[in-house]
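Q: Structure tokens for this one, please.
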Amino acid sequence: MIKMYDFKSQYLGIKNQIDNSIQNVLNDSAFSNGKYVQQFEKQFSEYIGSNHCLAVNNGTSALHIALLALGIKANDEVLVPSFSFFATCESVSLTGAQPIFVDSDYDTYNLDLRDLESKITEKTKAIICVHLYGNPCDMDALRAIANKYNLNLIEDAAQAHGSEYNNNKIGNFSDFSCFSFYPTKNLGAYGEGGAVLTNDKESYYKLLSLRNHGSSEQYKHEFIGHNYRMSGFQGSILSVKLKYLDKWNDIRINNAKLYNILLKNVDEIQIPNINKNSKHVFHQYVIKAKSRDELKKYLAKHDIDSAIYYPNPCHLQKPYLKIKTIAPFSEKLSHEVLALPISEHITKDNIKYITDTISKFYV
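A: Here is the predicted structure, written as tokens:
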């Protein structure tokens, strides 16, 4: 079986460094936050080019406290993509605010900016953009809209570790950028993890308290916060894996280029469209395919794993059915998208076999 992910082979390639990093945490009993989390925060902020990085327990928590730090509350509205993982809109609901769903651009899978601007009201306080599958959004246009209406802007960069826009790392174009280190990500922990990055010092200190029960000094609590601390094990592991991120991303990019060449003449397939002035790091290599569900079953019969991200747009999920949303392209994409194996364990021979199998399906 050609798998979507091969965590074991990745681990074996850096086994000694990972094992040593775990042992260091045990030796120092630095289990919650602590020096290994602080070390990773410094390394990741330097990698992205941001002034401040706050590590948290997962990507959903990162989004949640970013919204709280902006003062988002009940009766506020936050614009979010409908075609995204549920955590994007869920984080808005956790603040008591209302997510307003924006349709997708059919070519790039990211926010449709015309639909976004049409949904701005007096209640709108912020925009969350998602760099879906690792493909950067048009940040110049988004920043212009945010400035025009005096809105805060958050980047959901959970799938965009190392992506670039205008030669700058994704994570530098907004009030806050939020990352997930779920194991499947380009930079994945061995469990859960997340981070919020910002260039604003005052916001950073507020995030510190929000992460730690509303406390900036032990046993003194200024407001209601959360227990969103990162495990020392994850911080130490991520420091090791960060050294390999660019190398692994380059493999994904080269795999995507080969997929594009081998699939370009399959009329029933549309290969990914990369935003201009962008570096797409292919967290997922996602095609649009006719008879998608049948193709997925056919690939499985030929020992090829694939995945659908996402079969149901957020506005059609049960908690949000009462919100009247028109998002035809998000719904269309949910019936057409299919992710093919793209991670660093995938070989040229694997890709040739996968593309040959796809071509045979459509004969």
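A few notes: The first strand starts at residue 52 and ends at 56. The chain has 13 helices and 15 strands.
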